[in-house]
Amino acid sequence: MSDKQYTAALDLLRRLDPDQTRANVANLISLEPELAEDLLAAVDTPLTVQKDPHASHREFLCCDYNRDIDSYRSPWSNEYVPELTEEDAQESPFPSDPLRQLEVLCNDSFDVYRDLYYEGGISSVYLWDLEDSTDGDFAGVVLFKKTNVGGEWDSIHVVEVTAADESRAVYNYKVTTTVILQLRSEKQNGLALSGNLTRQLERDAPVAHAAGDSIDAVHVSHVANLGQLVEDVESQTRNLLDTVYFEKTKDVLQQVRLANAHTAETQLNKKQHQDVIRGLQNL
Amino acid sequence: MSDFERIIKDVIMGCPPGEVEEVYKDLINIVGENSKDTIIDAIEEYNIAHHLPVEVNGKQVILSEYNKQGSKFNEPFDKISFEVDHLTRQGFNIETIELPEVDEEIQNIHKNLGIYAEANFPGDVSFAVYKTSDEDKYAIYIVSTKYNPSNFWNGYWESAYIYDKQVQTLEGGIRVRVHYYEDGNVSFKAEKEVKLEDATDVVASLSAAEKAYESELDGLFDDLNEKQFKSLRRRLPITRSKVSWGKAIGNYRLGKDAAEGR
């Protein structure tokens, strides 16, 4: 696979029907099998759901970030579902112990957030240690999914958290957010408003660091900082979705077909108006 | 059709109007110049299926199965035939051909259709009335597009009907596409079947049907917003304020449990 092919494939996926992203990705992989790994990692598709048999069958969200082979790690029990063979499981990625503690706290807090904003739906947070970086840095993904009749919302927030200075009193938080929103009319077959929008946000924020501060205090700071960041970027994205899906679409529609039926009178006015413009252009 | 041809056709058919040249370039970058003919064949099929206009002698001529003759297309008013570069949608090898005069009835519909189209479609609008193989039936098209790639959006409206002058029925449909692709990929698709009887004045009938659809679309949009979008994620929590993060976040749950009497 060349860079040219990969760039072209990403451009295509930005143009082709976003309602069919999975099928489009599969088609591109058939055309060039070497695109598979990179495309599957880079392209966001609607999240899938699994039930965790080790946590009262509670549902959790699945994406490439918590996948190993064909199994997905649950945030509730930290186990892969379906269970991996002992041999495979030894190689599987798990967060380090302190990071898993932070992951549990994140899942608890974002579950409250989910309830407040989504009043339903599913949330899952996955964290992983960053290789070759300072102790205490980490990355992760915060996921939300909600469906209703004809509608489906998937939020994917990929975050990276790195110490902004040596004292580790301030951390840098970076998030790349994609929301996939699909809306289908219940009243008319074939009417669909669907797609995805991406935004990024980055900020520095203080973290508890005094000698006496426990690891718990550091974790509480991280969750609060991440929580505010995700809440802000998700609210911004929701507003953008509102504008683009509804206002922008209607606006473009009116550029191809006038919204209001034209009476003979307004047609005449339009003609007079055009005549005036033509007259001015000829000056 | 080979699997390869089927996939190419699938990709081209999923292309938003106004972006076929970019999609063509992307495909060439992926599969190579050798597959050029396969891609162009799919684009021809796409252009005809969407009744897209091509430029011939400075005029826009709508492509349809009814003005296709072999590898060429014709324009019955100017009595010309031409080949098409389907990628750039330009006519070439333009020749005058022997064609009978256009029926008076077609001329009338064409004239009224033109007045209606100019008044109601502010985009780049084209229209056509073609004879079909059944002499009682005419094919009627209006295609309005507005392409604005520098602002990352493209829009398309197509009306395509078959008018049966014997029984005065109008059958066909409206297809609408809007694509917005700045920092994302958002698509609006709508299709409406139209079936009208007693279409004594065919243009008046289709005009009424299209106006009715326009208001219907408005209502459908509002529904998507009110009933689906708004209930997926709230703008703010029911408390009307942002979340208090940190240790106290557990209080929400305590509060909720208390409210629900747990």
UniProtKB/TrEMBL annotation, chain A:
Tagged with keyword DNA-binding: no
GO molecular function annotation: actin filament binding
Subcellular location(s) of the protein: Cytoplasm, Cytoskeleton
SUPFAM superfamilies, per the entry: Subunits of heterodimeric actin filament capping protein Capz
One cellular-component annotation, GO: F-actin capping protein complex
Domain of life: Eukaryota
Function: F-actin-capping proteins bind in a Ca(2+)-independent manner to the fast growing ends of actin filaments (barbed end) thereby blocking the exchange of subunits at these ends. Unlike other capping proteins (such as gelsolin and severin), these proteins do not sever actin filaments.
Family according to the record: Belongs to the F-actin-capping protein beta subunit family.
PANTHER family cross-referenced by the UniProt entry: F-ACTIN-CAPPING PROTEIN SUBUNIT BETA, F-ACTIN-CAPPING PROTEIN SUBUNIT BETA ISOFORMS 1 AND 2
Protein name in UniProt: F-actin-capping protein subunit beta
Gene symbol of the encoding locus: KNAG0H02850
From TrEMBL, chain B:
Similarity comment text for this entry: Belongs to the F-actin-capping protein alpha subunit family.
Alphabetic keyword roster: Actin capping, Actin-binding
Role of this protein: F-actin-capping proteins bind in a Ca(2+)-independent manner to the fast growing ends of actin filaments (barbed end) thereby blocking the exchange of subunits at these ends. Unlike other capping proteins (such as gelsolin and severin), these proteins do not sever actin filaments.
This protein's name: F-actin-capping protein subunit alpha
GO cellular component entries: actin cortical patch; cellular bud tip; F-actin capping protein complex; incipient cellular bud site; mitotic actomyosin contractile ring
Gene (UniProt): KNAG0A06700
Subunit details: Heterodimer of an alpha and a beta subunit.
Stored Pfam families: F-actin_cap_A (PF01267)
Species classification: Eukaryota, Fungi, Dikarya, Ascomycota, Saccharomycotina
PANTHER family reported for this sequence: F-ACTIN-CAPPING PROTEIN SUBUNIT ALPHA (PTHR10653:SF0)
MF terms in GO: actin filament binding
Biological process annotations from GO: actin cytoskeleton organization; barbed-end actin filament capping
InterPro entries assigned: CapZ_alpha, CapZ_alpha/beta, CapZ_alpha/beta_2, CapZ_alpha_1, F-actin_cap_asu_CS
